[in-house]
Amino acid sequence: MKSVLALLLLLTSADAFTTTPSGSVRSTATTSTSSFSRNSIVLEASRNKDKVASRSKWAASRGYGLAAADDSGDAGKSVPRLIIAGAPASGKGTQCEIIKEKYGVVHLSTGDMLRAAVAAGTEVGNQAKDFMDAGKLVPDEVIIGVVKDRLDESDCVESGWLLDGFPRTPAQAEALADAGVSADCFVFLNVPDDVLVERVVGRRTDPETGKIYHMTFSPPEDEEILARLEQRSDDTEEKVKVRLEQFHANVDAVKGSYTDISVEVDGTKSPADVSTTIVEAIDAVLA
């Protein structure tokens, strides 16, 4: 009986080792552990792949331009989709440049988009051209088509976008939503009308350089430049008040379309202070 037990013990011990082609002895226990580790790595990689696919699917459902959802530090981050609104001379131009520089988004205005679509000869561009050539206003459905096409281009999808002063009316806001376009943050620059009038009426443009000065806040120091400055024909008090009336007729309804993502900023503060408030709001949304 003892001899049988000894034999079984010997055979069990022998099975714990295998001989490699070189004749060296390798523990099968080690092989088993190594195999287990490889299987664990494969399983973990598969799980990570599933997580990546899940994140990509989630991002796509939200309309985020997620180029590649991987395990890097940028994984899962959405590109900024922003709208900025404000009356004429509210400071939108200055803030748009800061936002563009800060976040790398594509800055878009309806005028630029319309001209680009017409020049490219796209379907909606040709439709817009017909109205423009006839001296008619381009209808909302055509403008929405131009905007939607532009936002679907690769630079907007990959880098994000900033719509400057659009939508202007509640009908445009509704049509934009119906087209599946949603934003992360709606920034409104609030400036009293009397301040806006002062800003507009004092503006002057250098016809040679295109630089804009203000006779009260930032006049040119060079007398030669000062002598050649020009005032735009619509930068008069009478005309700016008409533009402000049109702006106020629609702005509350437009803001109402973005209540959940809206941030109102005091546009009378310095550009730096205004920018700080805007950046904090955008960062909070994108965090």
Task: Walk me through what this model shows.
- By secondary structure, the chain is α/β, with parallel strands linked by helices.
- Helix content is 56%, strand content 13%.
- It contains 12 helices and 9 strands.
- The strands form 3 sheets. The protein has a 5-stranded parallel beta sheet.
- Strand 1 (17-19) and strand 2 form a beta hairpin.
- Helix 4 packs across helix 5 and helix 6 (140-151) packs across helix 8 (170-178).
- The longest helix has 34 residues, at 28-61.
- The N and C termini lie far apart (74 Å).
Question: Strand-and-helix sequence, N→C?
Answer: HEEHEHEHHHHEHEHEEHHEH
Tally of alpha and pi helices: 12
How much strand? 5-15%
Spatial order of the strands in the main sheet?
4-5-3-6-9
The secondary structure category is alpha/beta
Number of strands: 9
Shape field: globular
Which stretches of 5+ consecutive residues score pLDDT under 50? 1-76
What is the mean pLDDT?
A: 79
Helix content: 55-70%
Biggest sheet statistics: 5 strands, parallel
Alpha carbon gyration radius: 32 Å
What is the rounded distance between the termini?
74 Å
Question: What are the salient characteristics of this protein?
Answer:
single chain, 287 residues, alpha/beta, five-stranded parallel beta sheet, two-stranded antiparallel ribbon, 12 helices, 13% strand
Question: Could you outline the blueprint of secondary structure elements for this entry?
Answer:
Layout (H helix, E strand, L loop, with lengths): L1 H14 L1 E3 L5 E3 H34 L19 E6 L5 H12 L2 E3 L1 H11 L2 H11 L6 H12 L2 H6 L1 E4 L5 H9 L6 E6 L2 H9 L1 E3 L6 E3 L8 H6 L8 H20 L5 E5 L4 H16 L1
Parallel strand pairs: 3-5, 3-6, 4-5, 6-9
Antiparallel strand pairs: 1-2, 7-8
